[in-house]
Amino acid sequence: MITAVVVEGHTQGEVARAYGVSQGWVSRLVARYRAEGEVAFEPRSRRPKTSPTALDQGTVDLIVRVRKELTEQGPDAGPETIAWHLQQHHQLRVSRATISRHLTAHGLVVPAPRKRPRSSYIRFQAALPNETWQADFTHYRLADKAGTDTEILTWPDDCSRYALHVTCRPRVTGPIVLDTFRQAVAAHGIPASTLTDNGMVFTTRLSGGRGGRNALEHELRRPHITQKNAAPNHPTTCGKVERFQQTMKNWLRAQPDQPTALPHLQTLIDRFTHAYNHQRPHRSLPHRATPRHHLHHPTQSPTGPKPRRPHPHPHPHPHPHPHPPRPHRQIRHRHPPPGRTPAPHRRRTNPHRNPRDHADQRPGHPDRQRPHRRTPPRPDH
């Protein structure tokens, strides 16, 4: 149509009648060709140029600014956290997908195509607080000249995500684990179970020695607390405490005054723990509540020792005698069954096993031996 008008010199009305379209459509195509050239022959997108629900540029800039501020401060800076800050501090309600789309458009998301999708994991969570406590320790280096390595021991609750006890030590040992567990019990009650990895400070079940239980295992055994341990090389089983440690270490690294001694590090840990428990919303909790708010729910306590399996007989002595008779296992008949005649040649007994029962077969008594039907009797001399 365009070549018929521009090259061949036909009028737009003649071309419209020849192709069965409106004259206005032919006029728009010719005007587009004269303005854009051969690009006018390519099909255009039907996407609308404007959208009534699109975010304005000011909101997009605010999302980018909040993202950079949260990244500098250290805590999580994902779409869920940004949406919560926009709603709490700026009275703006933006969906998580919209925030993620704008962060990707501005190059603020590091692509990880080989990362395992989160939907592939089988998630589990305790139903009540104090139903399961997780425990683990991680490393953090001080900012002194030697770069001293320290270890941070954490006890979070599986249900409420509440950080029960967090402490830093030069090295985490079995007595330290026992002491921190007792402090957490004194402050929050006795848990029904614990979940840890297979570190020697938590369990000795994979040590291969004969030393017996360690201090924590003895402590858990007294009130009948169930001890659960993750399988080797499966860190996702204790994923909640692992994720808590990652968030804590990101916050510690973002602090301008890096700790140079253990007391300074413990002060920063206490600041983070208070903000984590009382101020920071958790996306895994209902209505994004704080761990402290969710900890007020009814708690779970140890269920006690497991009942033993019932005895197959209701009475302790089902037999009249203290020692029941042995079951009768008759291998060969000493007497023929009814209706059969005895066959001496079929009787194959050992005369040396019980000589009293086989006096007639003793050696040295030829007169008492029974003649065999296949051997002739011995002649008399």
UniProtKB/TrEMBL annotation:
Keyword set includes Transcription regulation: yes
One of the record's GO molecular function terms: nucleic acid binding
Record organism: Streptomyces rapamycinicus (strain ATCC 29253 / DSM 41530 / NRRL 5491 / AYB-994) (Streptomyces hygroscopicus (strain ATCC 29253))
Biased composition (Basic residues): 278-297, 306-353, 370-381
One GO biological process term: DNA integration
Limits of the Integrase catalytic domain: 125-299
Protein name, as recorded: Integrase catalytic domain-containing protein
Top-level division of the source organism's lineage: Bacteria
Keyword Disulfide bond appears in the UniProt entry: no
Stretches with biased composition (Basic and acidic residues): 354-369
PANTHER family: INTEGRASE CORE DOMAIN PROTEIN, LOW CALCIUM RESPONSE LOCUS PROTEIN T
Keywords: Transcription, Transcription regulation
Parts forming coiled coils: none
InterPro entries, per database record: Fimbrial_Adhesin_Reg, Homeodomain-like_sf, Integrase_cat-core, RNaseH-like_sf, RNaseH_sf
